[in-house]
């Protein structure tokens, strides 16, 4: 009889739960203003555009060492491990919220020796064995909104993990290119020092022949040693970049090194696509949007507090004085029934909680829209940088050719005795400066290309978010 009544009660309350409403606003993605095209891409069409790989965007640079280093970021970077642990924690919170859909079942047993206080009665044993269950019926959708909030939060955490991965990969690529530029700069300065050694020899021979002053020799020697010092100084930044790369791949700097090598990387041609595509391609935008959904669900949780909680409780067990005949019908005890509990007066607490939830939602919407605006800005910045730097590189290449020609002509004029050595120093300094500027422009173009790939999401799409 007790089991039959329990089943009927559970069935009735289940029907109530299924027919219940879900309070609070349903989620709709906030609208954002999206331009039809990127301004900085107008009038600049990329010739032979190169597509970015979704799995390994850095492969566009076709550098085997860079490829190997980037793969180690995924495995050993400690910041990524922390972000991955945060995502696992968020998915566990989803499990915690979903557990509220089901009844909580408990069991207990006890054995007591008791005295009723009557001297003649003496003491007696009381044995009990029971099980109980309680189930909160989600009539108003409080549990459903809580699960909805946690699911969106876990998806936001997954997007945060993707954003952290992209950031670490982009930083490594930028550091790697700067390190290779330092290798090129060191090679340039060493080659220049070798050429200046010849200038010292020329000035010395002319001084011995009596056709030049000793000051020419001193000036040539000064320029040579100064250039050698610059070549040595490049090692400071190179070492720091090497150490930074070691940390990004999760290794102690003392156990990591990169051999010097020539720079054989070209700046890729990247198609920017449409601005609207950024809404699906950037993990930070996806994270911000999912947090809007989280805040929206929290409004429903706060509104549900206005309504009473309906909880079904049931228990069944046995109570007796002897263990051998404890489990028998005459010792059975049971109870079953619903409980309705609500707050009558709270001094405005629930109203304040709803207002706070709505304000949190408005804040998350503003953050989401600001994230979208920032993504447009970052993309426009890098498109402008790549376009302008490409134009600058073309002009600078002509300047390098002209400066080297001027250097050669001036040195020949000095050998012929038609110009002072100061003219040679000026021409050589200009030639070196122009070559250094050319290297600096190449570095800026490579870093800007990495930044553009990062601004475009690195091949990531919102479809990679877990459904949970």
């Amino acid at each position: 009889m007790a089991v039959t009544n329990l089943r009927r009660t559970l069935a009735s309350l289940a029907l109530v739960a299924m027919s219940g409403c879900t309070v609070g606003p349903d989620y709709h993605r906030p609208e954002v203003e999206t331009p039809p095209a990127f301004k900085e891409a107008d009038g600049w069409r990329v010739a032979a555009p190169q597509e970015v790989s979704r799995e390994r965007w850095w492969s566009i640079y076709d550098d085997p060492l860079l490829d190997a280093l980037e793969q180690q970021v995924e495995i050993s970077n400690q910041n990524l491990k922390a972000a991955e642990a945060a995502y696992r924690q968020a998915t566990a919170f989803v499990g915690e919220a979903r557990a509220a859909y089901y009844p909580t079942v408990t069991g207990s047993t006890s054995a007591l020796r008791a005295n009723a206080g009557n001297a003649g009665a003496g003491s007696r044993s009381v044995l009990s064995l029971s099980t109980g269950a309680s189930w909160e019926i989600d009539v108003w959708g409080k549990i459903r909104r809580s699960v909805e909030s946690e699911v969106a939060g876990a998806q936001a955490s997954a997007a945060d993990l993707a954003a952290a991965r992209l950031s670490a990969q982009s930083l490594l690529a930028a550091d790697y290119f700067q390190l290779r530029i330092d290798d090129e700069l060191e090679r340039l300065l060493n080659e220049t020092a070798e050429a200046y050694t010849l200038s010292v020899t020329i000035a010395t021979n002319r001084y011995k022949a009596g056709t030049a002053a000793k000051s020419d020799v001193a000036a040539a020697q000064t320029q040579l040693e100064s250039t050698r010092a610059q070549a040595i100084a490049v090692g400071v930044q190179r070492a720091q970049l090497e150490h930074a790369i070691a940390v990004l791949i999760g290794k102690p700097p003392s156990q990591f090194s990169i051999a010097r090598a020539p720079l054989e990387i070209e700046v890729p041609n990247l198609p920017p696509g449409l601005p609207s595509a950024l809404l699906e391609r950037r993990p930070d935008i996806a994270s911000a949007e999912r947090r809007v959904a989280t805040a929206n669900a929290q409004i429903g949780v706060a509104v549900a507090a206005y309504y009473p909680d309906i909880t079904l409780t049931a228990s069944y067990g046995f109570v007796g004085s002897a263990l051998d005949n404890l489990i028998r019908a005459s010792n059975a005890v049971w109870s079953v029934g619903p409980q309705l509990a609500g707050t009558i007066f709270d001094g405005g607490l629930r109203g304040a909680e709803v207002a706070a939830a709505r304000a949190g939602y408005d804040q998350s919407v503003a953050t989401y829209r600001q994230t979208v605006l920032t993504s447009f800005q970052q993309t426009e910045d890098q498109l402008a940088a790549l376009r302008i730097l490409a134009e600058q590189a073309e002009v600078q290449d002509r300047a390098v050719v002209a400066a080297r020609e001027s250097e050669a002509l001036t040195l020949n004029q000095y050998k012929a005795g038609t110009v002072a050595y100061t003219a040679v120093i000026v021409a050589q300094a200009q030639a070196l400066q122009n070559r250094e500027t050319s290297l600096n422009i190449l570095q800026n173009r490579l870093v800007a290309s990495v930044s553009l790939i990062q601004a475009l999401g690195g091949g990531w799409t919102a479809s990679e978010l877990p459904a949970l």
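The CA atoms of residues 115 and 444 lie 89 Å apart. The first helix runs from residue 2 to 19.
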